[in-house]
Each structure stands twice: as structure tokens, then as C-alpha cells.
């Protein structure tokens, strides 16, 4: 078994929304596995392999931040856009706004440990992709800007962060409840997916993802 690659990510704000909150956004106390995978793929991804997140370590104290934002209630669909081009009434965000509350996190930092798993039929060794990822992290390169749960909360990344607060982190033990692991998409290409959850908890500041969640085809 190879040693997993590690990368530190941090930012001013983050929001990893609990799925049971329908209107108002309330963040988990820690980054979710799907959000961590999104950060890794933003830095480096190829169709020949996939990321398996092993653990997420909290590097700074958990601090909450409340914000009230103007958001639209519905999305502008393709059909509405076509009708607007034909001179019919279009979508106007100013007429569809509402104020929504978000309980997010501030001053966050995490360490992500993950495995590179080569897909069946690929002849390349996983070490090749691990080395490419580590080089990109050292250079600060990414394919797209990684973010912390919401696109308006960009993430910085690197081999390490300037400072940590380890003495505090030893006391973080939280039962997080059911956390979203991934979506099992339908094979028909419709884009519909069935959410899959797992019982999550922070133990001494570390969220560990059970290996059993990854099937043979994951």
C-alpha cells in the first residue's frame, strides 16, 4: 500500500452544507469527502485515475460566521433564454430575489490525505500521477480555482500552511451525524443520482473515511 499524498488547503470562509437544511445553509464543522475530492481534482485530474480521500485533518479551531445574502429563487433555464431572444418575457434576477441566511465557517485550514487509484485497464503506475500532483502543489498550479464548499469561497493550497494550532485540535471530538459521501449516478446518463451517506465523526480533529465506502468500481 502506497503512502497517500497530502495537501493543505485554507481560506477565509467555507461552507459545507448539511443536506437536511433545505432553505438556510448550515455548514458541517469540517470539509466533506466530496468537497475534498473536488479540491484535489481542481489541482490535478486525469481520466486514467480517481481520488480516494482517506482522511481530513482540521488544522485551525472551528469558528462560525453568519452571513445574510441576496439569492435568486429559481434558475434561468435554456427555454426561458430562448423565449427572451424571441421577444417574450425573460428571466430578471431583480424580480426573483430573496434573502437567505448562511451559517458558514471562517479562517479554516485542512490537511487532505488521499490515494491515487488507477482505473482498470490502465497500464501506468499510480506513482506517476502522485508525483505529478505533488509537483503541481509545490508550484501552486491548478486546472481551476479550488473552493471550499461554495464557489464564492476560494481556497489556497500548498504543501503546508504558515501556522497550526495543534494543542487545541487534540480536543476536537464531534459526532457529525450523517454526512454525504457521494452520489451513485444512474447508468442511463440522465444525471440522476442516489445520495450515499455515512456516520461521520471528528476524533482528535481528524475525519476518517471508511475504506468500505469505496466499492471495487469506485
Notes on the protein architecture:
This protein is an alpha+beta fold. The chain has one domain: Alpha-Beta Plaits, CATH 3.30.70.2660. It has helices at residues 33-43, 78-85, 126-139, 166-169, and strands spanning 5-14, 25-26, 49-58, 64-72, 97-118, 147-148, 150-154, 156-158, 173-185, 193-203, 206-208. The strands form two sheets. Strands 1, 2, 3, 4, 5, 8, 9, 10 and 11 form a nine-stranded mixed beta sheet that branches. Strands 6-7 form a two-stranded antiparallel ribbon. Strand 10 (193-203) and strand 11 (206-208) form a beta hairpin. The chain is globular.
Percent range for helical residues? Answer: 10-25%
Instruction: Kindly provide the radius of gyration, computed on alpha-carbon positions and rounded to a whole number of angstroms.
Output: 19 Å
Strand share of the residues? 35-45%
Secondary-structure class: alpha+beta
How far apart, in Å, are the first and last alpha carbons? 17 Å
Question: Which architecture per CATH?
Answer: 2-Layer Sandwich
> Which series of helices and strands comes N to C?
EEHEEHEHEEEHEEE
**Count of helical stretches:** 4
CATH class: Alpha Beta
What is the domain tally?
Answer: 1
Instruction: Outline the biggest β-sheet.
Output: 9 strands, mixed
Coarse shape: globular
How many beta-strand segments?
Answer: 11
Residue-averaged pLDDT, rounded?
Answer: 85
Pfam families: Cas_Cas5d
Organism: Dictyobacter aurantiacus
EC number: 3.1.-.-
Family: Belongs to the CRISPR-associated protein Cas5 family. Subtype I-C/Dvulg subfamily.
Amino acid at each position: 500500500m502506497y503512502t497517500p499524498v497530502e495537501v493543505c488547503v485554507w481560506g477565509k470562509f467555507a461552507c459545507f452544507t448539511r443536506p437536511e437544511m433545505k432553505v438556510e445553509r448550515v455548514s458541517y464543522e469540517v470539509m466533506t469527502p466530496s468537497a475534498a475530492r473536488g479540491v484535489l481534482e481542481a489541482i490535478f485530474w486525469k481520466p486514467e485515475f480517481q481520488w480516494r480521500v482517506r482522511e481530513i485533518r482540521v488544522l485551525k479551531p472551528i469558528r462560525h460566521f453568519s452571513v445574510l445574502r441576496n439569492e435568486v429563487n429559481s434558475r434561468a433555464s435554456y427555454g426561458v433564454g430562448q423565449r427572451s431572444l424571441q421577444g417574450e418575457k425573460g428571466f430578471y434576477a431583480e424580480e426573483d430575489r430573496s434573502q437567505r441566511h448562511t451559517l458558514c465557517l471562517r479562517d479554516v485550514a485542512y490537511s487532505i490525505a488521499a490515494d491515487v487509484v488507477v482505473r482498470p485497464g490502465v497500464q501506468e503506475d499510480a506513482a506517476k500521477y502522485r508525483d505529478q500532483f505533488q509537483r503541481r502543489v509545490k508550484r501552486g498550479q491548478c486546472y481551476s480555482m479550488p473552493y471550499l464548499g461554495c464557489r464564492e469561497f476560494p481556497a489556497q493550497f500548498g504543501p503546508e500552511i504558515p501556522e497550526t494550532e495543534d494543542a487545541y485540535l487534540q480536543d476536537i471530538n464531534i459526532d457529525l451525524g450523517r454526512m454525504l459521501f457521494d452520489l451513485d449516478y444512474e447508468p442511463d446518463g440522465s444525471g440522476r443520482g442516489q445520495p450515499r451517506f455515512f456516520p461521520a465523526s471528528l476524533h482528535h480533529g481528524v475525519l476518517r473515511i471508511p475504506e468500505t465506502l469505496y466499492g471495487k468500481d469506485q
